[in-house]
Structures are given as structure tokens and as C-alpha cells.
Amino acid sequence: MSWQAKRYHDISCGHRVVGHEGKCGHLHGHNYRVHFTCEADELDNLGRVIDFSEIKSKLCMWLEENWDHKMLLWEHDPVANVLIDNTTGTGDGTTLGDGIVLVPFNPTAENIAQHLVLVVGPQQLKGTGIKLRHCEVEETRKCSAVYTLRPQKNDFGQIER
Ligand SMILES: Nc1nc2c(c(=O)[nH]1)N=C([C@H](O)[C@H](O)COP(=O)(O)OP(=O)(O)OP(=O)(O)O)CN2
């Protein structure tokens, strides 16, 4: 038996998809909606998977602090390498390199969802006994991608949820 608790969060990010056949290879942005699904085998003594406010503080706030209003670029993207070290002033106290976040993947919705489940979830939920099982990343209200953590077998061949 398992339970799931869900919360979504909205952020705005720039990105580009390296090698895209069409317009998505250009620098552009989205109002992303990210849906987090947390899972537990047991409920706590109040009957919760995890308090909704903890999903907010641990996962939604991670998005807010790390990615919101930033430009997500693949670390191997040649455009990123031009921008990241660029200290050319823009006249308002910022530089062209400000707000660039290098990520270790081409920033499609699929790769963003996978990174959140495999890297950010375990880091942010460490010690809680809760898993980030599933993440859906909406680029627009029409289009989204989903990554789901599959149950794995332990050394005894038992399914570990
Ligand atoms: N499977 C995926 N396909 C695409 C992704 C992605 O992350 N995963 N990303 C993009 C682009 O980022 C693009 O901005 C979105 O593309 P698209 O839906 O074609 O464009 P619009 O939102 O402008 O939709 P219109 O209906 O054409 O206005 C592309 N594909």
C-alpha cells in the first residue's frame, strides 16, 4: 500500500533545446508548472504522507531559489559558454552572465522532470523517508512531460518501493 501527496509550483525560466529542428533551438522562455508527487508506504500519526507545506518548503522553494527567473542552459551548449563568463555590463548593474544556470542536460521538459526526480528530490527529502516518485513539467498548459521513479529490486531481489 502506498499514498501520494501532490503539489504544484509555477516558475518562469528561459532555455533553449540544443539541436532542436525548429524554433525551440532559439533562446526563449516558458511559464513552467511543475507538479510534484511525493510517496510514502505509511502515513504519519496525523494521517499524512508529508505536510503540503513541507512539499512547498523543500521542493517548490528549491525551484524558486534556484531556477525561477533564470536561464537554464545545458553545460555543453556553446551559447552558455559565451554567456556564463560574460561580465559585459548592461547599464543597470547586471551583466550578461547574470541569471544563467548551467544544467548537466539538454533542458527539455523530460530532462527537467528526470533531474528533479533523480537529483533534487533525494537531496531535498533526505531523512524524511519520503520519495519524490513522480514529476510532471508543463511547458505550456497544452504540453508536458513526466518522469516516474520505478520501484527497484534490492540485493535480496525484493521490490523496494
Ligand atoms: N517532447 C518535447 N518536445 C518539445 C520540447 C520538450 O521539452 N519536449 N520543447 C520544445 C520547446 O521548448 C518549445 O518552446 C515548445 O514547443 P511548441 O509546443 O512546438 O511551441 P508553442 O508552445 O509555441 O506551441 P504553438 O501551439 O506552436 O504556439 C519543443 N518540443
From TrEMBL:
Organism: Microvirga lotononidis
Keywords attached to this entry: Lyase, Metal-binding, Zinc
This enzyme's EC code(s): 4.1.2.50
Taxonomic classification: Bacteria, Pseudomonadati, Pseudomonadota, Alphaproteobacteria, Hyphomicrobiales
Gene Ontology MF terms in the entry: 6-carboxytetrahydropterin synthase activity; metal ion binding
Regions annotated as coiled coil: none
Function: Catalyzes the conversion of 7,8-dihydroneopterin triphosphate (H2NTP) to 6-carboxy-5,6,7,8-tetrahydropterin (CPH4) and acetaldehyde.
Keyword Zinc assigned: yes
Record carries keyword Zinc: yes
Source species, domain of life: Bacteria
Family, as annotated: Belongs to the PTPS family. QueD subfamily.
Entry cofactors: Zn(2+)
InterPro entries: 6-PTP_synth/QueD, 6-PTP_synth/QueD_sf
Name of the molecule in the record: 6-carboxy-5,6,7,8-tetrahydropterin synthase
Pathway the protein contributes to: Purine metabolism; 7-cyano-7-deazaguanine biosynthesis
A Pfam family per the record: PTPS
Reactions catalysed, as given in the entry: 7,8-dihydroneopterin 3'-triphosphate + H2O = 6-carboxy-5,6,7,8-tetrahydropterin + triphosphate + acetaldehyde + 2 H(+)
